[in-house]
Amino acid sequence: MAATGDIIATYRGPAKVMRRILARGQHEESALIYLMIGCLMVFVAQTPRLAREAFETDANLSMLLGGTLMAWLFIMPLVLYALGALTHLVAKALGSKVTSFGARMALFWALLASSPLILLWGLTAGFVGPGPQMTAVGAIWFALFIWFWVSGFLAAHKGES
């Protein structure tokens, strides 16, 4: 199934999708692609907010976009790999048999699968601006991200135990 179909299916049952992804085998290139596309989506989501900020403050939009690009496509993948490794180590210390790949894939997939909501947040930030609407969309995105991550991690734990 294409990743877009898996993203839609994740909103109905994240654990089922994670089990299906892990059943395909441990392919690190898939994990890296999911991570990089997820980070790219977060960068794209930032562009309306950055354009608004540049317009309101007379800041250089190119500089804002360059810094955000650097952060999301070069630094955050490293941070997310470290976070995936840390969750694996914590789970292992607690007696889980989840593999490092399963822990990373759950995190990376959660970021990619929740990207439609982060794109909506970016549009809200760019067109509506700071306020309760932006906060509400951000809170919904964060709740979905955590739900997808925890569900995926538990599916990886159960599938690999």
Describe this structure in words.
- The structure is a single chain.
- It contains seven helices and no strands.
- The protein has 161 residues and is mainly alpha-helical.
What are the SSEs and their pairings?
Elements lengths: L2 H8 L3 H10 L4 H30 L3 H33 L6 H14 L1 H13 L4 H29 L1
Helix pairs in contact: 1-2, 2-7, 3-4, 3-5, 3-6, 4-5, 5-7, 6-7
Secondary structure tally: strands? 0
Largest sheet: none
What general form does the structure show? elongated
Question: How many DSSP H or I helices?
Answer: 7
**What are the secondary-structure elements, in order, as H or E?**
HHHHHHH
Distance between the termini: 25 Å
Which bin fits the share of residues in helices?
over 70%
Our estimate of the beta-strand percent is under 5%
What's the overall average pLDDT, rounded? Answer: 94
Radius of gyration: 17 Å
Instruction: Label the structural class.
Output: mainly alpha
Low-confidence stretches: none
Which features does this protein show?
161 residues; mainly alpha
Précis, in short:
By secondary structure, this protein is mostly helical. It contains seven helices and no strands.
